[in-house]
Amino acid sequence: MDEIPYQMISNLRPDAATDWRLQVRLTRMWRNMNRNAETVSVNFIFVDALGGRIHAWMPPQHFQQLENNFLEVETYVVRRFVVRRYLPMQNGRCFENDIYIQLNHMTEVFVIGGVDYIPPHVFQFTDFDAIVDAARQNQYLIDVVGILQAVGPITPFRNKYNVQENSIQFTITDMHTSTKVIFYNEMAQSFDQAVRDAVRHPIIVIISSCKAKFMPDEPKLTDSAPTRFFINENHEAVEDLRNALRLADYFHN
Questions:
Q1: pTM of the shown model
Q2: What is the pLDDT of residue 40?
Q3: Residues 160-211: pLDDT tens digits?
C-alpha cells in the first residue's frame, strides 16, 4: 500500500485513473431512499488536510461489504475508485463542484489514526445577500452561518400525498440581512431539541448543504438529504460572528 502516494482532493481528475489514494475524514454519511423506503445509494462527504471536500457515493450492494468500516468523523485511507464529472442535468449537488467520487466493489478502505490535522468539517459560506441568486439555480446546495433570531414551534401539516409531516420555521441573520429557514420531519425535531439544549446564547447556526428556493415568492432555505446543521460549532466563522456581536454591543452601550 505504501508504494502509492496520497493524492489531495484538488488533484483528482475525472476518468483519468482508478488507482487514486486519499487520506480523508468522513464528515457526513447518508442514504438516498426511494418512495418504497429502499436504499438507492449511500453517500459520503470526504475532506482532506488542505480543506478540500468532495461528495462520494456507492450503490447499496457494494456498501454492504464496507458498511462496518465507515463511521462519521473517522479518518481513512480510501483507494481504488473512479472520479466522475457531473452531468449538466445532475442537480442538487452537495456543494459547488464539477466532480464526484464513485466507490465500487474494487474500493478499499482502511481506518487510520493520528491525523488530527484533517478538519472535522469544511464549509464554503454563501453571503445572505447572494441567497436570492442561489434560489434561482438548482445545480448545487449552499452553506450558511447566522445568528438565530427567532424560532417557531414544531408544526404538523399534510403533504400533497395527504401524509402528515412536521416542520419548524426559524430566522437567522448575519447582522445585515435575515433569511428564513424551514426544516422538515426528523431535521425539524432534531433542530428543535438542539435549540432547547443549547447553553450558549445567542445561538449561532451553521447549515451545510441546504437548498435555497422561492417559497412561493420569497427566497428561503430548506433541508434535503445531505443537509446538516451545527449549533455553536467550534469554527472561526462562528467566533467571527460572536466577536462582531460583542463589538456591536460595546458601541451601542
A1: 0.92
A2: 79
A3: 889 899 999 999 999 999 999 999 999 999 999 999 999 999 999 999 999 9
Q: Please return the burial class of 50, using the count of CB atoms within 10 Å of its CB with bins 0-12, 13-18 and 19+.
A: middle
Say how many C-beta atoms besides its own lie within 10 A of residue 7's C-beta.
Answer: 18
Residue 64 has pLDDT above 80, yes or no: no
- Return the C-alpha cell found at 57: 457515493
CATH of domain 128-252: 2.40.50.140
Q: Which residue has the cell 456507492?
A: 58
Q: What gap in Å lies between CA 18 and CA 22, rounded to an integer? A: 12
The Cα 231–Cα 148 span in angstroms is: 10
* CATH 2.40.50.140 for the 9-112 domain, yes or no: yes
* Confidence (pLDDT) at 6: 86
Q: Residue 252's pLDDT band (boundaries 50, 70, 90)?
A: low
Q: Where in the chain is the domain with CATH 2.40.50.140?
A: 9-112, 128-252
What is the 3-state secondary structure of the chain?
A: CCCCCCECHHHCCCCCCCECEEEEEEEEEEEEECCCCCEEEEEEEEECCCCCEEEEEECHHHHCCCHHHCCCCCEEEEECEEEEECCCCCCCECCCCCEEEECCCCCEEEEECCCCCCCCCCCCECCHHHHHHHHCCCCECEEEEEEEEEECCCEEEECCCCCEEEEEEEEEECCCCEEEEEEEHHHHHHHHHHHHHCCCCCCEEEEEEEEEEECCCCEEEECCCCCEEEECCCCHHHHHHHHHHHHHHHHHC
Tell whether the model's pLDDT for residue 251 goes beyond 60: no
